[in-house]
Amino acid sequence: MAITGSSIDSRTTPQRNTSGLWGGPFVMGLLLSLLGVVALGAVVATSVASVIFFGSMLVVAGIFEIIHAFRVRKTGPFLMFLLGGILSIVVGAMVLARPGAGLMAMTLLLAGYFFASGLFRGITSLVDRYAGWGWDFAYGLVSVVLGIIISAQMPTSSLWALGIVVGVEILVRGISIMAGALTLRGAMRQVAHS
Fold first, then answer.
1. Where do the structural domains in the chain lie, given as residue ranges?
2. Which of 33, 34, 128, 147 is the most exposed place for a label (fewest CB within 10 A)?
């Protein structure tokens, strides 16, 4: 009886140890995916929260940059870090003071990015005609159309565009983490059976 019990313990202990390697990332990916779904369900709140987060991060980064400027004042580019920190704090404070204007500015930047990157990718794929160029051309076309749609629907698109992009990013990141965790689990099972 003691031999059977010890053999069961020796089998379950490695499984518990290895499940921690893939289980934690899987749960984190699942939670991120759920957060992405919630973000997509409330795109206006996600857009506003993203702008407030961005403004806050600019202020924090500016403070750290000013601190760094005083740390390197005798050995490094003091004025560059100091002015860069002040600029970050000012822009971050402006975004926090007027989140609506910050949201419109970020939406315009997003629309410009989609349009420019799509145009670049589409033209490059047409000119080079490398293997799989059709997929890149389609991606570029969709990106250009998305940039035009967002620009044409300003200012109302500022309420949904950023929220959708952030929600999709969180959802896709969660799914990729879960997929990586499951791949790790499969590889660990193969190693255990061989």
1. 29-186
2. 128
